[in-house]
From TrEMBL:
Pfam families: Abhydrolase_6. The keyword Membrane applies. Residues 403-429 are annotated as: Disordered. This is AB hydrolase-1 domain-containing protein. Residues 175-383 form the AB hydrolase-1 domain. The chain crosses the membrane at residues 17-44. Keywords: Membrane, Transmembrane, Transmembrane helix.
């Protein structure tokens, strides 16, 4: 269920006085008491403040070497017991390994033995803790794909990107946008399918991700500001031979793509979007995280008010309020006019899938919705790369087929183009 959206335009006078009371450090009666007010501030700041270090919450129990091969015994949890291929970062992120299939699993001992497919950096045998990731490769070279390092001019400097050129002259470029707390490594999973479709790929960085220049306030805009860096990437693509683009986005990267398709002056050149576990509605996501962290719902809602109200800047550090209502694409479903494929796991623990389903239900002409199982957050490719790539390639082939000839009314290609009805598919086993 979608939580109600709060914004200054529709806020009651009582709510305005309440948020003012919190921000001014007023009496307990102003809202929830000093403790709850502080908790609301903490929650709001956590949402928009980039983490400088990921939490190493996956325990390495042993590494077994057999000749040239390695296996790793990990503490069993909801991530490590799902089959597939994953990235494992350790030693503060300096070490990176690719972890493959499950060899054995002992529920009684709460351990899982998995294959180690590759160690790109660091010494896994000395690792004790690390974190699980969908980013299985460190760079294009590890995938065996030639790439160029390029710099995209953005507001405060230059943002590094990987440019992977398709053979021949590619008029359609794929611009790939990673999620919150991730890097462009996340998008390497989609480069292979893009190349098969003849798309040149631009794997970008954006403000506050650790590679691109930081924003003035050093805070995430949750898509409301980051889209400008993606617009700059579109400018770069157009200046270097692109005639149109396809946007790929993961998690918050999906929210950024939606804002780009809505606000960019080049939005008419965005042929399609492929969104993986996207944030469709921040209110739902924030309510979900408040519940996960056992924060009372009222405290969570006032945290959201702080993000969206001008008075909240004193406590959040934002240079401008974040309008969550503008980024609610469930409510704005009919305004989405870019053909969009959404891939989302029904057990996503970080971004609930229900808003994705609702968007597809309310705008079936533009949105195709495909569900996965057991993939958790943004790891649909990791769980079943063959299915993910098959879905993406089939859908994009349809969207990128030659458009109708407006002069003759005859289809110049054998497939319907963008704007033809999309489908809403049920989950597959």
């Amino acid at each position: 269920m979608t939580a109600p959206t709060s914004d200054s335009g529709g806020m009651s006078p009582g709510a305005k006085w309440a948020i003012a009371g919190v921000i001014a450090g007023g009496s307990v009666a102003a809202l929830l008491g000093a403790g709850s007010s502080a908790l609301a501030v903490y929650f709001a700041r956590r949402v928009i403040t980039p983490a400088r270090q990921r939490v190493a919450d996956k325990e390495v129990l042993a590494v077994i070497r057999d000749g040239q091969t390695q296996q790793v015994i990990l503490a069993a949890n909801d991530d490590t017991t799902v089959d597939g291929v994953y990235g494992f970062f350790f030693d503060g992120g300096k070490g990176h390994a690719r972890i493959g299939r499950i060899i054995s699993y002992s529920p009684a001992e709460r351990t899982v033995l998995r294959e180690v497919e590759a160690v790109y950096s660091g010494d896994l045998s000395t690792a004790r803790w690390g974190w699980w990731s969908g980013a299985t490769y460190p760079d294009p070279a590890a995938v065996g794909i030639p790439a160029e390092d390029v710099l995209i001019p953005v507001e405060r400097g230059e943002a590094p990107a990987w440019l992977v050129r398709a053979k021949g002259t590619a008029r359609t470029w794929a611009i790939m946008v990673h999620g919150r707390g991730a890097t462009r490594q996340e998008a390497l999973r989609a480069v292979g399918p893009a190349l098969e479709l003849g798309l040149t790929s631009l794997l970008v960085s954006y403000r506050n991700d650790g590679l691109a220049p930081s924003a003035d306030d050093g805070r995430y805009g949750l898509g409301s500001t980051e889209w400008q860096d993606i617009d700059a990437a579109i400018e770069y693509a157009l200046a270097h031979g692109a005639g149109e683009v396809v946007l790929f986005g993961w998690s918050m990267g999906g929210a950024i793509c939606l804002q780009t398709a809505d606000l960019s002056r080049h939005r008419h050149l965005i042929r399609a979007m492929v969104l993986n576990a996207p944030v469709i509605d921040w209110v739902t996501v924030l309510a979900h995280h408040a519940q996960l962290n056992r924060i009372p719902s009222l405290v969570g809602r006032y945290g959201q008010l702080m993000l969206g109200h001008p008075l909240g800047r004193r406590l959040t550090g934002l240079s401008a309020p974040v309008d969550l209502k503008v980024m609610d694409w469930v409510s704005r479903a009919v305004e989405l006019r870019t053909p969009t494929l959404i891939v989302h796991s029904v057990d996503d623990e970080y971004v609930p899938y229900e808003p994705s389903a609702l968007l597809a239900e309310r705008n079936p002409d533009m949105v195709t919705f495909e569900t996965f199982n057991h993939a958790r957050h943004t790891k649909e490719w990791n769980v079943d790369p063959e299915r993910w790539e098959r879905l993406v390639k089939a859908w994009l082939r349809q969207q990128l087929a030659p458009r109708l000839n407006p002069g003759s009314g005859l289809d110049r290609g054998s497939q319907p183009g963008p704007g033809s009805p999309a489908r809403h598919s049920p989950a597959e086993a």
